[in-house]
């Protein structure tokens, strides 16, 4: 770290070299060796209207993702982006954004993946800056092209790809491995596919990766967007068995909320072995044959679609065979319909279980899984 910068005391005396506060940013606006960057999901409703004076823009979707393939930007694209923003080798980069910095922390993760040294996060982000009525500007600044050169080899230790997740965490009984689902409880349980603010970015299936522990990303921030104290954060994760000795992978839907959780664990709490699975649920939930867990009536039900390929179907009763065992008068009260609703799995299961008062009439969970995954209901 450069001595030019004043350290920021993170919350209750826990020192962090990766956070700065709003006063620090205000006192350093306009300095040549500091670049303030706003990271937005939708710049039209944020940066384009106003922003911290002197700050430049990174668009999450267009700038941090590869335009041709489903991946983050490559080394050369990262290098060109930073040069365009006027960044040199020794520039101190300060990131901030909307939505409690979740897209800014994704950018932070990308910076660290490409081994950028001095990158920090504005604690509280855009929310706190505006709440404190600090200066805003609509002027878009320009800077001379930078000379930053990206290191050839990225830091692959902080990134988890699909096969690593499936091979090393799912389906194992290794208590040294933890998989954290940073999405909302409703997404984790399979009741919704994505947050309401992103209606057009839905995965094909609802649920969560088997074995994942649900710790919503926003449980780590205060109302003003700043991070909770170190003691509070430790209590949140340790109460779920997430301790520094574990190998941890975080995921969400598209990788931004899990990057926020990754930042908290690795940089605020100092956990040594944390990876972000940026493919996240949008990848996992769209792959044919992938195992999926749902929470139905407060119980976890697993759907491993590929396993049905090896089942002897002749040994299982069909849906219609079971349906014929249900009394006719009861059949009239039950409506089981095929539909294209993305949450139909949960709805169908709940519909059946809740309307059958006689336990002897209820199909087993194994039968339900079989019927659903062979398109019988």
Topology:
Elements: E1 8-10, E2 14-16, E3 19-20, H1 22-28, E4 34-40, E5 56-59, H2 60-64, H3 75-84, E6 92-97, H4 102-113, E7 119-122, H5 125-131, H6 162-168, E8 177-181, H7 185-189, E9 213-214, H8 230-238, E10 247-251, H9 256-268, E11 274-276, H10 280-284, E12 291-296, E13 299-304, H11 319-323, H12 328-331, H13 344-355, H14 365-373
Parallel strand pairs: 3-7, 4-5, 4-6, 6-7, 8-9, 8-10, 10-11
Antiparallel strand pairs: 1-2, 12-13
Helix pairs in contact: 4-9
If you had to describe this structure to a student in words, what would you say it looks like?
Helices cover 29% and strands 15% of the residues. By secondary structure, the chain is an alpha/beta fold. The protein folds into three domains: 147 residues, Oxidized Rhodanese, domain 1, CATH 3.40.250.10; 127 residues, Rhodanese-like domain (Oxidized Rhodanese, domain 1, 3-Layer(aba) Sandwich), CATH 3.40.250.10; 63 residues.
What's the short story on this structure?
By secondary structure, the chain is α/β, with parallel strands linked by helices. Helices cover 29% and strands 15% of the residues.
* Gross CATH architecture of the largest domain: 3-Layer(aba) Sandwich
- Tell me the series of helices and strands, N- to C-terminal: EEEHEEHHEHEHHEHEHEHEHEEHHHH
Considering DSSP H and I runs of 4 or more, what fraction of the residues is helical? 25-40%
> How many discrete structural domains?
3
The overall average pLDDT, rounded, is 84
Rounded radius of gyration (Å): 24 Å
Please list the strands of the largest sheet in the order they lie side by side.
3-7-6-4-5
Q: CATH H-level name of the largest domain... which superfamily?
A: Rhodanese-like domain
Instruction: Choose one word for the global shape.
Output: elongated
Total number of helices? 14
Uncertain spans = 1-7, 305-314, 337-343
């Amino acid at each position: 770290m450069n001595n030019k910068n004043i350290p920021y005391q993170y919350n209750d005396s826990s020192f962090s070299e990766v956070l700065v506060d709003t006063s620090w940013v205000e006192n350093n606006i306009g300095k040549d060796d500091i670049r303030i960057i706003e990271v937005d999901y939708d710049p039209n409703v944020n940066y384009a209207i106003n922003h911290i004076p002197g700050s430049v823009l990174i668009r999450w979707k267009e700038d941090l993702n590869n335009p041709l393939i489903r991946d983050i930007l490559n080394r050369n694209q990262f290098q060109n982006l930073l040069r365009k923003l006027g960044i040199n080798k020794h520039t101190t980069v300060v990131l901030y954004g909307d939505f409690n910095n979740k897209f800014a922390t994704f950018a932070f993760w990308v910076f660290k993946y490409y081994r950028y040294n001095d990158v920090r996060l504005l604690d509280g982000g855009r929310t706190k800056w505006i709440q404190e009525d600090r200066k805003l500007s609509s002027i878009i600044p320009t800077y001379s092209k930078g000379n930053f050169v990206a290191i050839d080899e990225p830091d692959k230790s902080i990134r988890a790809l699909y096969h690593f997740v499936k091979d090393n965490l799912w389906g194992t009984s290794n208590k040294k491995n933890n998989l954290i689902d940073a999405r909302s409880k409703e997404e984790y349980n399979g009741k919704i596919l994505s947050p309401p603010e992103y209606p057009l970015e839905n995965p094909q299936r609802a649920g969560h990766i088997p074995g994942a522990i649900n710790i919503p990303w926003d449980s780590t921030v205060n109302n003003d967007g700043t991070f909770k104290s170190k003691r509070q954060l430790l209590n949140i994760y340790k109460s779920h068995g997430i301790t520094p000795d574990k190998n941890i992978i975080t995921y969400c839907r598209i990788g931004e909320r899990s990057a926020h959780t990754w930042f908290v664990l690795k940089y605020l709490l100092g956990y040594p072995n944390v990876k972000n699975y940026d493919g996240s649920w949008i990848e996992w939930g769209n792959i044919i044959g992938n195992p999926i867990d749902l929470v139905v009536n407060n119980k976890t039900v697993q759907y491993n679609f590929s396993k049905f390929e090896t089942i002897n179907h002749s040994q299982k009763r069909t849906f219609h065979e079971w349906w014929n065992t249900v009394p006719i008068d009861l059949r009239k009260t039950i409506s089981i319909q095929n539909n294209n609703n993305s949450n139909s799995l949960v709805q169908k299961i709940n519909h059946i279980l809740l309307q059958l008062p006689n336990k002897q009439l209820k199909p087993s969970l194994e039968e339900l899984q079989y019927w659903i995954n062979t398109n019988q209901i």
